[in-house]
Amino acid sequence: MEYIGIDVHKRDSQVCILGESGEVVLEQRVRTQRERLGELLSKRSKARVLLEASTESEWVARCLEEMGHEVVVADPNFAPMYATRSRRVKTDKRDARTLAEACGLGAYRPAHRTSDEQRHMRAQLAVREALVRTRTRYISQVRALVRREGLRVADGEAESFVKRVEALALPGRLKAEMAPLLSLLLSAPLDDAFPPAPLQ
Question: Which pLDDT value is given to residue 30?
Answer without folding.
Answer: 96
